[in-house]
Amino acid sequence: MTEAPSAQDDMTTTAAGVATATGATAGRTITVDSAKELLKALAGAAPGDRVELAPGSYRWNEPVTLQAAGTKEAPITVASARRGKAVLDGTAGFAFGRAEHLVIQGFQFRQRTPMEVPHTARHIRITRNLFEFDEPAGKNSWLIVRADHTRVDRNAFRHKSAQGVFLQIDGPGDTVARRVRVDRNLFHDHRFTGGNGGEAIRLGYGVKGPAVAEAVIEDNLFLAASGDDEVVSVKCSGNVVRNNTVIGGSRGSIVLRSGDNTTVSGNFLLGTAGIRIYGDDHEVFNNHIQGEGQLIIGPGDAKGEHRPARRALVVHNTVVATAGQAALRVKSGEVPPSSVTVAANILVSDGKAVQVPAAKGFTWRGNVTTKPQGDLPTSGGVQADPRLKADRAGVLRLTRESVKIPAVGRVPDSFPQLRNDINGRPRPSAAHAGAEQFEAEPSVTRVPLTTEDVGPSSK
């Protein structure tokens, strides 16, 4: 075990994968090469210290339980001495006791049992790691978070074949961990082919719909994450799902399956991905869906096991649906969705643009649809070709010709919560239809995320 002065990591790393300081309190660096030495070093660690596990293969049969208390200004870090070179490839990896302000950084997790962050911990950060388990054939999940204020960022989760999820956010009893942040991760190649239970992220559980989690899932790339019809499954309340990219899969949508009051905004969903909503008071805006995916407003059932969408705000989205799919579909069921506002969307389809077999008390305003409109009420918008054009990334965007169309160039209503468009451009009260506000010389343009933007090597 060796010691040296250290600077605590806060996002910035060198080309070699070594952390550098960006404002956090400095401490010691302690290098170890065994579980015993790691636990000894942690027992004596002070806020700001960094314990580094030397490169090598670590095949532990039992989990190594980490207990340490850093501070917000000076967390304690447990890291691979060189990013990706300390490989945990035994039966178990790390577990957590009473730990707080603890950072886990730069490992390869190739173990056979889940990593669990229990509710007794808090302010845990899991960052710049690779998760690729030697998973059993049966149902299993890889990272299970039950601790409040956990952050999961800049990791790669890849190559899962069995039933189970890459990341489960849960909590004790009828609760869900509060204020979890999941950002800049790469989730790719979930290959489970069964009918259910292969999400990339599951936030909560169906029975925990009323639990308020206040989670933020943002700036993640889901690449060929095709283990389930739901790539992100939200089953609790009060969350934000924004600025993610879903691409390259054979199935998988962002789904608000249980719970209320969640915002879905700024997402690129390309290929087979779409958005489905159930429950009360959701806001869905500034999303771009292009391919076989749809924007679906869902019903409930008479037993109350699944609740219909009610009082949702579905505005300023662009949906370009192919393969004969409706761009926007209001599904029928025992209890139809009700009191939903659908406004200022661009809805393009090579079939019916809008399919509404059942809806109750909907407000339709200022939508632009291609022909045939389908079931859009006469007062709900106009039929027009929005004259979209593909950019270099293949995303169909507004053009100068688009905004010459009155229905595209100015929608009849404004929504105060929409200060910006999908790109981050200001959205004036006289806004354009769809997810973006056209600018001839754009100040900023967001494009779908790529593998360079996320994962262990990203900025």
Structure description:
3% of the residues lie in helices and 36% in strands. The protein is mainly beta and 459 residues long. A hairpin with a 5-residue loop joins strand 44 (389-390) and strand 45 (396-397). This is Polysaccharide lyase 6 family protein.
Overall mean pLDDT score?
93
CA distance, first residue to last residue: 30 Å
Q: What overall geometry do the principal axes of the alpha carbons give?
A: elongated
How many β-strand stretches? 45
Spatial strand sequence of the major β-sheet: 1-4-5-8-11-14-17-20-23-26-29-32-35-38-41
Determine the fraction of residues in helical runs and give it as a percent range: under 10%
Task: Show unreliable segments.
Answer: 5-23
Structural class based on helices, strands and sheet pairing: mainly beta
- Our estimate of the beta-strand percent is 35-45%
Gyration radius (Cα, Å) is 23 Å
- Tally of contiguous helical segments: 2
